[in-house]
Amino acid sequence: MKITSFINKWPFHLGVILFSIVADQLTKWWALVRFTNETGAPNHDFIGVVGDLVRFQLVFNKGAAFSSRPQDLMPFLPSWLFFLLISIIASVILLWFYKSIDKRDWMSRLGVVMILGGAIGNFIDRMRLSMVVDFIDCDFPDFIMTRFPTFNVADSFVTVGVAIVILSPLILKQIHKQIKEEKENKGAAANDAKQLSDASCHPERNEEESL
To answer: Of 93, 103, 122, nearest to 12 (Cα)?
Structure first.
């Protein structure tokens, strides 16, 4: 209980966001130093971490999600403004979602801050380099895809955060059930209060209904 109480406090959440940003930017800096030549272009070298299954290899992602180009989505906006607006909208939605989560649901709150930290890490790349630095390359079973799209530490935080939010109702089943019942009871009480208020404001309507 003490561990979950500590994890669920905002200083820890702020620390998770800062850690995700620092870890992401440091590893990307290392990848740029290790895998670029004198001109700043990728040198096509790679480091095998687990044979050919997991390796480090530099890739620049100049597109948006799923490699889509900002010019295709909103051709009237400069790329930097497109990513700035998207990042602001996403951050506002995530912060609203974070505030709306019941404090007992510590897993969902942790997942959201991990997503936010990862999103900020990639946003820094967009503003600083006009592209995202990816360097983690993983193999995949060939019947699914040849190789998994190259990603980075920020992407990992986002993916793990999404997984935590999805798994929260399964792992914290009792807490989610209790939260749902409290919301239903609150809604029923509010509905009863509204009916009583309507009845007191329109007594003639009650007399007509009784007749």
So the answer is: 103
Give the active site residues: 134, 155
Compute the average pLDDT of residues 67-95: 78
Among candidates 91, 100, 114, which has minimal Cα distance to 167?
114
The count of other CB atoms within 10 Å of the CB of residue 58 is 21
Q: How big is the CA angle at 130 (ends 124 and 134), to the nearest 5 degrees? A: 70
Nearest CA-CA partner of 138 in 30, 42, 56, 29:
56
Residues across the chain: 211
Inter-residue contact 57 to 150 (CB < 8 Å): yes
Asked if 106 and 123 touch (Cβ cutoff 8 Å), the reply is no
Predicted TM-score (pTM) of this structure: 0.81
Q: Could you write out the DSSP letters of every residue in 15-48?
A: HHHHHHHHHHHHHHHHHHHHHB-TTSSB----EE
99: tokens are: 């505030």
Question: Residue 188: how many CA atoms within 13 Å on its side-chain side?
Answer: 6
- pLDDT bucket at 140, cuts 50 / 70 / 90: confident
User: What value does the mean pLDDT take over residues 42-56?
Assistant: 90
Cα separation values, 97 from 45, 102, 157, Å:
41, 10, 17
